[in-house]
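Table S7 (text form). Paired inputs.
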Amino acid sequence: MRRSSGETKKKILTACVRLFLEQGYKNTSVSQIVDEAGVARGSYLNLFPTKDKILLDLTETMFGGQFGVARSIAGSKLPSVYAYAVDTAIQLTLTELNENLREIYIEAYTAPDTAEYIYVHTTAELKEIFGGNFPDYTDSDFYEMDIGTAGLMRSYMARKCDIHFPLERKISRFLTAELRVYKVPEEEQAKVLAFIQTLDIKAIATEVMYKLFAMLEMKYDFKLSMDGETEVTR
């Protein structure tokens, strides 16, 4: 009996997400995907003409509850800019903990469909957080600003940390640039950066990473092999 398109799509997504996390987005070929999923190449191409279409589903899952996690860490008593800073710091740290996550994030900020999702998803949050600094700005204005700041995020993610550019400095540099774009007063910037420095951001991001892996395993119904790149990069 012919397999339904819904079942085929689920098999493909399950195979792709696992392969992306275990061996990287770029290293995952169409041949590997169809072999792993046990589907015909034509069926795969009909549902997903490019890998970017699969990446969009993964991106929506990864970014969906991300800001809520940051809010819970920052707490309800602090202004939303603190949650924004925590969210940013977690993203940057995740890409240092795991090279395959770095690649997925970079691709998500690069591919047109996934980048558009990020812009739209982030615009409402930016307006809520920084709207007071730009009283006349519309959603379109914040959308256009996010195109630029998202590009900056991608560049920082792509630059790996080393002894000359440690993670703490990367986070500080990026947040300083972002907060200046959104006209956060210098005094408030200093308080936000000081708050981030009080956090064990690597421990927080590690916990977030494993919760993300567990969520993806549950959603896509697979079990990650924890050998190699799915482990935290020390």
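Next pair, protein 2 of 2.
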Amino acid sequence: MRFRNALLLCGLAAAVTLAGCSSSSTSLPGEKVATNAIFTSEYGPVEDNGYALPGIPISKVNTRFHRQIVDYATREKPGTIVVNTPNRFLYYVLPGGKAVRYGIGVGKAGFAWQGEAYIAWKQEWPTWHPPEEMAARRPDVARYVKEGMGPGLKNPLGARALYLFNEKGQDTLFRLHGTPEWASIGTAASSGCIRLMNQDIIDLYKRVRPGKGARVVVQQ
């Protein structure tokens, strides 16, 4: 397994304000057609474990980044997660040549990474612990290194987090996680980890069974 520039700098990137993208859907290598089913209607308000997630103004997010089922040709087994960093997509491989495709936000230049890992564990409404490297640059987050930022609507990890470990069983310090910053989806706006809209990470969370069979492949 190989990670490039592997620093845990998840989540607390500066707030991003972006204009809405035009709505269009395109095919990519590995896809026979763009869309078999699209779930644009599933981004409304959500009551989840006592938290009231606001609805996402999904019409302002390019249609290609809406959750959808696509035809996806791959040798990876069902249950594998494939992250296509350049095109800003995460695929959850299904049987029969299909995949659930989610739009993602990826790491900024210099913090991008690639390699293979597996989902060792997952957490609903996680606590966020920034690394000491981030605290050295951002004194305003230093107090969260040890005590952590508790779960909530402003937590950089959002509603769910999936924790990536390497083949030796060591925490890579990289996460697949939610984000309250829906406008950052489709951009290189995060500081390293892979972010999804909160409604999408909740959907992905339900599909993933942690363990070494929950393989993650990140492509550059």
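The helical segments are 132-137, 144-147, 198-207.
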